[in-house]
């Protein structure tokens, strides 16, 4: 799994650092609005944990991937994300969004947002909204934008209350129909689908300096934040193949593609596929194909 994204990383990637909204006494809080276009698309996000809480109101179709499920948003959604749950999001079709970020220190002596169901593992984290509900959520974000720029001495108390208002808005409206799994699968099938998607992304090699780092079932399980035995059982149930077999098959497919369609030498291909020694790659390829990599290339 990628390193944990810090609040500083988030700003550098998305909007730039705004140190004026960081306080040692109040913790950290920020809220902002974003508009997107073909010339200014949303930034892609890696599958990783963050060290901060986040609430987003997004307008437009989107997709969030967690370790055990995929959540699809058809039109607009209120999304709650916390430091304990790694995720990635496809926001390429989102036209605009409101976003707030805060850390636990912001709520010091004012409760713990992580205790609410929207931030609990296994809970609902994305809520599809009707137009009326989206307008209600938008009005809360707009009040936050006005409040954070105000000179009011106790504005952070007001902002904490507005964060809680958003949380209770989601809980009270009971928007449990918001999380649409793609497709509607059982737990093993969802894990298999996520594993397959990760496997395909990871083995899409287009640069000789790129190197595969997830080689074993344990590597993939760690990246997906599940136990390796859980991953093995799910894949065996769904595909009738072991995790190692599926990884080897995809590795072999990519090896054959690179041998036929690239000008890289065998050593470069071995390196890209994560083999420590070219001899190990040669033995792997010959075991599965009955010929050496060079023999396959020259046919």
From TrEMBL:
Which superkingdom heads the taxonomic lineage of this protein's source? Bacteria
InterPro entries, per this entry?
A: Homeodomain-like_sf, HTH_AraC
Protein name, UniProt field:
AraC-like DNA-binding protein
GO molecular function list: DNA-binding transcription factor activity; sequence-specific DNA binding
The record, for Gene3D superfamilies, names:
Homeodomain-like (1.10.10.60)
Please provide the record's keywords in A-Z order: DNA-binding, Transcription, Transcription regulation
Residues of the HTH araC/xylS-type domain = 189-299
UniProt KW DNA-binding keyword: yes
